[in-house]
Amino acid sequence: MSLTDAGHLFHAEAAAALRHIERADQVGRLAARGLAGVIRVGYVASGASSGLLSMMLSEFRKSHEMVRIEVVPMETPRQLEALSDGQIDVGIVRPRRLYPAGVITKVVQTERLLAAMTASHPLARRGTVSACALADQSFIVPQFTDEEGFGDALAALGTAGGFTPHLEYRVQDFISAICLASAGYGVAIVPESMQNFSQPGIFYTQIADFKFSVHLALAHRRREISPAVRAFVQLGTEALNGRGS
């Protein structure tokens, strides 16, 4: 007994359908264990330049290589909104005093601030500068439109140096600030990890008497239902804690 042409076609289609069902069932079981699915991760620039993002992704992939990761650069206020409405699942953010309902964070890195300026700036020859040496400078302020951005850090610098900072340019992110600083438009106060951003003509220097620190935090939903997202947060936090120990 042999199959007709139509029978052969039906048999092939039926076999393919069975394989698809088996594959869907397998993926479903993996997803239930957090071993499949999609995770959307938001991050601020320092999350990338500090190595936090790549470390988390590398650690997670060791045991969850079938989980698809989508990374999205965005500033902290937008990340918190995106977490609330489900557009992202995890964020690397700058800590805030208040968070949207249902969003929680854990500080995972602390870093000092540096002064970034054009390499031809007279202060660049000194290596390390004092806060008061910056009194006459024009400053480029990242995230100025966010009330909890780095305006506070600049105000603290003024207090340390005994002057009122002159705000010349207000920008939305550190990369924009560094680009302006490298071109001689002013001095930017940036996290230490931004030294890893390769920008021609920029010089970074420590501020000897300015101990103000900034933090990076891991943000996620308190009642997260995705096993993959929960695993990502757990493994990422453990990896970052291990790095700090």
From TrEMBL:
Extract the Pfam families matched here.
LysR_substrate
What SUPFAM superfamilies does its record include? Periplasmic binding protein-like II (SSF53850)
Keywords noted in UniProt = DNA-binding, Transcription, Transcription regulation
GO molecular function annotation: DNA binding; DNA-binding transcription factor activity
Q: Does the keyword Transcription apply?
A: yes
| Entry-linked CDD domains | PBP2_LTTR_aromatics_like
- InterPro entries, per database record: LysR_subst-bd
Q: Which Gene3D superfamilies match?
A: Periplasmic binding protein-like II
LysR substrate-binding domain mapped to chain residues:
33-238
One CC-aspect GO term: protein-DNA complex
Instruction: Tell me if Transcription is a UniProt keyword of this record.
Output: yes
- Provide the family line: Belongs to the LysR transcriptional regulatory family.
Q: What is this protein called?
A: LysR family transcriptional regulator
Source organism of the structure:
Cupriavidus basilensis OR16
